[in-house]
Amino acid sequence: MTGDGRAFGTFGFRFAAADELPLCELFAVGHERETQTAYDWDGLARTDGPLLLFQYTIEGCGELAVEERLHRLMPGQAFLVEIPGRHRYRLPEDSPAWEFIYILLRPRMALSLWTGVKDRIGEAPFLPQGSGPIRALRDLIWDAGSGRIADPFSASSHTYRFLMELTRFARAKGLSDSLWPPAVKEAVHYMDRHYGRMIGQEQLASDLGLSRYHFLRMFSRYVGMTPGEYVSKVRVEKSIELLRHTDWSLERIAAAVGYSSGSYFIKVFRRLTGQTPAVFRSGKQLPYTRFFFD
C-alpha cells in the first residue's frame, strides 16, 4: 500500500465451476508500476490464452503495437487486446515508468460484449478515471486484494459488472452527468424545464455559444443520445405522470408536454414504452410508476 492509498499487486483466480453455468471467468486483475524495459509482452508468444486483456494507464506512459498500428499509451488511455494475438505492449525506453491497472478474463461468456465494445470505441480508447468501467475495475482490484473474491460466483459478479460498465460507456460514448461539460449540463437543464415549449436546436446551440454541429456532436457524445431523443424521453416521462394522476384527455396531455397533436404523441409514446397511452392509463398491463429509457 502506498501513502496515497493505492494498492499494488497481481491477483489470479482459478475456480473450478461447472461448464454449463453461465459465469464470466476472471483470470487475473492487478495494479502495477513498471520501471524496467524488460516489461515487454508479445501477444503471439504467450501460452496462457485464450484471454481478453483490458489495461488502463494511471501514470507514466506505455506503448502498444497492434499489427502496423502504434499507440502511445498516456494517462487515461486503455487498450483492449486478445491473447494470443498480433500485438506487443511494453514500457518504452524513453518512459521512466508506467503505472496501470488491468483485468484478464476468459472469452467464453464475454467475447460478444468485448467485440461490441471494441467496434464502438476502438482498441486504445480514452476513459476518464471517474468513469464507470474504471471505478468498477478499481473496486474489483480492491476486493481481490482484500480476499473478498473467494468463489467463482463472486468473481463472475465482479467481472460482469465491469463488462456492463464498459459496454454502457461504449454504447453511450459518454460519461456520468457529473463529468459533462458545462454546456451539456446547461442544455439538459434547459430541456428538463422547457420540454413543453422547446426552442430549436440551432437556437439552443447559439445560446450556448456553439455551432449547431458542435453542439449536436458534443451532446450525443456525453449524454448518449441526440437532443431530440432526450426531449422525447423527458416528454414521455412527464406524460406518464399526467396519465397516472389526472383525467386529462390525450390531446391535452400531448399539448402540455410539447406535442402538436395527439396522434404524434401516441406514436412516440408507443415507440418508447411498447404500449399506447390509453392502454397504459387503463392499467391492463403492469401499473408502472416510472419508465427508464436508454
UniProtKB/TrEMBL annotation:
List the protein's name: AraC family transcriptional regulator
Q: Which domain of life is it from?
A: Bacteria
The transmembrane residues are none
Origin species, per record, is Cohnella zeiphila
The root-end lineage is: Bacteria, Bacillati, Bacillota, Bacilli, Bacillales
PROSITE patterns named in the record? HTH_ARAC_FAMILY_1, HTH_ARAC_FAMILY_2
Annotated ranges, domain HTH araC/xylS-type: 185-283
What keywords are annotated for this sequence in UniProt? Answer: Activator, DNA-binding, Transcription, Transcription regulation
Keyword Transcription applies: yes
Q: Which GO terms describe its molecular function?
A: DNA-binding transcription factor activity; sequence-specific DNA binding
